[in-house]
Amino acid sequence: MTGRRTVLVTGGAGFIGGHVSTALLDAGHDVRILDVLLPQAWHGATPDVDPRAAFVVGDATHPTVVREVLDGVDVVCHHAAMVGMGVDIRDQPAFVTNNDLATAVLLAEMTRAGVANLVLASSMVVYGEGRYRCRRHGAVHPGPRRQEDLSAGRFEHQCPACGDALEWVKVDEDDQLEPRSTYAATKVAQEHLAAAWQRETSADVIALRYHNVYGPWMPRDTPYSGVAAIFRSALEAGRAPEVFEDGRQTRDFVHVSDVAHANVLAVERPSGGTFTPVNIASGQPVTIADVACTLSATLDAPHPHVTGRYRSGDVRQVVASPDRAERLLGFRAAVSPAAGLAAFATAALRGHDLDGRRAHIQRV
Fold this sequence. Notes:
The protein is α/β, with parallel strands linked by helices.
């Protein structure tokens, strides 16, 4: 796919969607944003979107709204979603509505409008636990961790044959999907809906499986914020960041500017008429304790407190292979976690004073 395109970015007023919108505009594309501005995510903040984009406030679960914003669109970058772990199980209907019903409505209306290119914002959470191996017994696929082990502070998965702690291995896009939370289940469902749509329409779908995204304008002080923003909020309040388990959980933190660039590459790639999942990651794993320590040290703030607490829906280790992204998209992360997290320590978060940029807003 080459040349100037008209791109609909659903959820385009949000943290990742906003960066994606600006990156697309900078690359010379026309951008239209649809965002319902979920109160759970916005926490009273005012949307601040690139003024070059057309901004429509509307609900992606309403077919008439989606039909209107799709007029003249070439590609959709679908970021509209309710994210995070939520508060409790009563969040399930909201997750399913905002993530899966909205995706189904979008796909149906794309078919009616003849829009055949979708970039889907997926997530590393679709993998559940990552890949593991035992030094003596090779590859092991662990089940959910037992409550009695977690309560006793035994956080690592153990080999069922010998009881030794397992080592993590990088996951690739062909590994099995095994969601371990409500949010994860809805992201798997989004992928399955998009894959079924692709098979039935011969359209093109690339599912970008974002790993832990962080950067400027992350939402702060909500139960749906990312862990890096939660640590930042604690430090700004003069509190030590609270690190769950023993802090040795390993993740891949990828800067939002790299995620935005990956979207531009996905929009501009030649259409292959396939469903293709792609990990979007830095390729440089860090522990959760490392994240907290980097932020604390940069701000000369209280040292993180490792609590030993846990959440049953959390997974232990998920680290990605970035090889397919480089091979298929030519994508390689430009921002290292060391540099990006240090800069993030003083970056503006959503909820701070905004810089006054405003796009023309249309409500439907």
